Amino acid sequence: MPEEKVKSLLTHEVDPRNAEGTIDLDSIDSVTAADQEKRPNSFAVITVGRVFNLVAESPAAMHQWIGALSPKKYTLGDIDILTSCQHKGWLVKEGKIRRRRFFVLTETNQIQYFRTEDTRQPVAGSIPLNCLCAVDLYDDDEVKETGLYTFRLHSRKTTYYLTAKTADEAQEWIVSIQYVSQFKPHQMYCTCSFLVFCQLVKQTFIINEAEVDKPGVLSCWQTLACMCCTFVPERAIKRYLTMHLKKTIERFPDTEMGRFATFCDMNLSRTRKRDVVPSRDEIIACLGRRDLKAVVYCYGGGACNIELNTATTAGEVVKKLSLGLQIGSGNNRFALFEEYAGNFRVIDDRVVLADVLAKFEIEMKEIMKKGQNMLDKKRLFFKIFCYIHPERIMYDSIEATFMFEQLADDIAMNRLPLSHEVMLKLGALRMQVLDGDHETGSFLKDIDEVYPLPVITARARSHQDQLVSGDLHETYYQKTLKAKNIGTLSKKFKLPEIGDKERAEAAVQVEMQKIRVDTTEYWKRLRGVSTSMAQQKYLEMIMEAPAFGFSFFEVEYNTPDQRFPKNLLFGVGARGVSFYRNGESSPMKFYPYEIITSFGAPVQNVYLLVVEAQNPISIETNEVVEIAKLMKAYISSISV
């Protein structure tokens, strides 16, 4: 080969799009040097699915590759381990001898402990966690006697006695372990998928060419295709199955059997572990050797048809949509959500979307059995998950339009506490964007699209209470009631109980009409303002609100404190968390992330915040997982 061509090959930049194959770093179990005389500088990469034998050009390069690909390559100071592990720190492990070890709670829900902070060193031991694990809090009497904060971790076979330096450290470990144990699924039985794979290999192995593409044989191939899309076989079975598929492709390339073998081989290399039984649509797609189709919705009535295989994750779809819409600036973090009847639940980036669609099918069947309303269906929704740097967004960009539509929906659905005056002005700007200048005779028919109906009801109730107490003179409100023959001024506003349905409905209608008139007045003042300028003013005004950038959850405050009512709004934002009274636009209390030492769910539906220099804060909510995901996402964005 000419020297110029060799030089060009050595200096040519590698294009990942032309790669012949990939190795998922998360699937690497270990990387070791191979002692082979005929192949010097060779090393083996052992993954979940197979073993890769590779050869480096020199001993130094071999050791560099081993160090780079090793799953325990990161030290404590590297950002990778900070973002990958769930918790870490020094603890004293009691046994025959008390030993101080560095413990790491990994992403795989396993506790590993090392002799030093350098996680490249061999693991001294590990503690697997599952839903049967339990943690006992340290004994206060024992702490007074010994000064040691020792808690007990009960695993499947052994009880571990672990001692932390302070009470806060012990509490952090207890909360983290309980959180992992609570959401770790329990395997009640051993799977027999390897037996099914072996039987299907036997039934699809053809000796007599006359049996090629027979209906019975093709049925077995269809079953094998579904198995390859659903289960991840063990390494030995996978090697045996891959050999069978390769031989079938070579012997019968232009037959249905050969096409099924190609489809199986392609999916076998990318299939991930599944958590849900495949849906009917997925099985039909596998039988036809096609990708699964789905629809992703977004605000403004938009929808996007996507094709996904049985290994496509939510993160891959989010990345693809962000690139296509040119909204991957990093100012906001987008995610896929499960949406049903206006309620959203975020989907983790690592979740296989085929599992989500299968879960939709199961849950909708349960809803049908209960005879509930079937007008709303569960669907995939694409929207902003975290507001990282919203102030950096260009107001004429697609990302700004996403923000505008999402914030408008949050206001209409009462997910953003704002003052009455601000909501009136925002409603007027919203109408200017949607309908342009106000025309004579224009009427805000659907006021609940720009102003939250629960707030209207609350204001109507408040005005009714003032009338009952006699604090108001005859106003527009009483005149309207009189016109509707629901009460007379001669009764001196002695209104019936607030539960009177007819009077309560009339009060809501009166308040709705007043808000409609006030919003229209603000709308008239916007004549001549362009659509883009109205959207920019909308975003600028809402960014000045204290509640902007927070995601709110309805919670019950369990910590004894007379300053806090029982029912509150708990907000999670980019700089910290806050508590709001219902109906107020300013926070009662704000806690930055710098003073929050730990957070988690010690028991089901209870969320615990450990804050510096004060007692732990306990709140009760059924959205514990959503709060934890959001806080972890914001904290990880700060660390980056």
UniProtKB/TrEMBL annotation:
Residues 1-74, 84-182 form the PH domain. GO terms for cellular component: cytoskeleton. InterPro entries: Actin_motor_Myosin, Band_41_domain, FERM/acyl-CoA-bd_prot_sf, FERM_2, FERM_central, FERM_domain, MyoX_FERM_C, MyTH4_dom. Residues 292-640 form the FERM domain. This is PH domain-containing protein. The lineage of its organism: Eukaryota, Metazoa, Porifera, Demospongiae, Heteroscleromorpha.
